[in-house]
Amino acid sequence: MSIFDDLFARAAHDPGVASFLKEVFIRIPLSLRTDQLVCKEWRDFIQNNLWDDQNTRNYFQTHVLEKRQRCGQFNETTVDLSVNNVNPVQVKCDDDLVLIDVSNIDAAELLLVNLHSHQRNVLKLGGFDLTKGEQLLYEIGHDFFVTAFSHRNKLLLWSKDGKLAGESEVTSDHLAYMRTVRVFKKQIFVLSRSKIYVLHKNDDFQIAPFASVTCPESLGTVRSVVDYKTESQFLSGHDREVLVWDLDQDSAGALRSIETDLVVDIARKGSVLITVGSLQ
């Protein structure tokens, strides 16, 4: 057993050792993505203690990225995102991957572009049900992404190199419509008109239903969700109200509500909640 193996084992129950390891990795920020490839213990520690910690991310933003920007330490590259002269329907990306909806009227297609190697891959996901006005839904997680059709009770899980890793029904009950899909850490949120389904992705790239909540019909459509203070807490945006939920306390009702103007989407930056309205 190496000294790092011993330290990682102790860090699970010794906050002092965990803090020491965190300080070590903070001092080598440009190597973190390579460090995560060493083994599962390194990957999980870096993900849970650095990338998922908002204070550490703020530190990287302030002291690392801005310093590199001032010193001109950025490499600029151009990536071709076009495919067969099809106009993209929607684009989503993170630090590793760009996903572009290049579906046509008959079938769903998703273009994957690796931002490190510039490798391109088109996923052919099958035909739409034209009688229902189906749409392709997708969202990017830390080491995976998910896809779904808006009028089917199924969620597909993919590795970031475009390989199908698993699939799951969203619910054992009847689900006629999915409005959108959101991912926060290892939790996948599926929004219908008045229900929110929460699925969990484990380290073996398997997904399974975890919980569901039903929102009062008087609030209107469930428009968006964001994560909150803990893994069990989240916020949901409705027509003119935002609800605060905690799955550990009570999945049958929200903890509290926040009155807002018309909500189309919501976002959170630290302790600040941002609501996005609609210009009528």
| Strand order, largest beta sheet | 1-2-3-4
Number of strands: 18
For the sheet with most strands, the description reads: 4 strands, antiparallel
What string, H for helix and E for strand, traces the elements in order? HHHHHEEEEEEEEEEEEEEEEEE
Question: Structural class of the secondary elements?
Answer: alpha+beta
Distance between the termini: 64 Å
Shape: globular
Describe this structure in a few short sentences.
The chain has five helices and 18 strands. With 280 residues, it is an alpha+beta fold.
List the helices and strands and how they pair.
Elements: H1 3-11, H2 15-26, H3 32-35, H4 40-51, H5 54-70, E1 90-93, E2 97-101, E3 107-114, E4 120-127, E5 136-140, E6 144-149, E7 155-159, E8 164-168, E9 180-184, E10 187-191, E11 195-201, E12 207-214, E13 224-227, E14 233-237, E15 241-246, E16 256-259, E17 265-269, E18 272-276
Antiparallel strand pairs: 1-2, 2-3, 3-4, 5-6, 6-7, 7-8, 9-10, 10-11, 11-12, 13-14, 14-15, 15-16, 17-18
